[in-house]
Write a structure and sequence with these properties.
Length: 95
């Protein structure tokens, strides 16, 4: 699953996935923060890697909180929803 990890933040990417002049990929969040590819330092383009985005949507991902015991798996959209709920519960629990 390394191919669908952002080379900047190391998170799994979801569409839209952007790329540099040499075809290295970054997630959309990192694209807004960096101006060059993390591997080759070439300029990032405002171009989507549609094929990788479609492939990323079909992969089953582990929960980001697997280190704390969550063993659930999800598509990337469901994983993000699960993470949002987990973060809300954690925030309420900490108060």
């Amino acid at each position: 699953m390394e191919e669908i990890q952002c080379q900047v933040c190391q998170e799994y990417m979801a569409s839209p996935i952007k790329m540099c002049e040499n075809g290295h990929n970054v997630c959309n969040s990192c694209r807004l923060r960096v101006s060059a590819g993390p591997t080759c330092r070439e300029s990032l383009l405002n171009v989507r890697n549609i094929t990788l985005g479609k492939n990323a949507a079909t992969v089953i991902y582990p929960c980001k909180n697997r280190e704390t015991g969550c063993e659930e798996t999800f598509t990337v959209d469901d994983r993000n929803k699960h993470q949002f709920v987990f973060d809300v519960i954690l925030t309420v629990h900490r108060r």
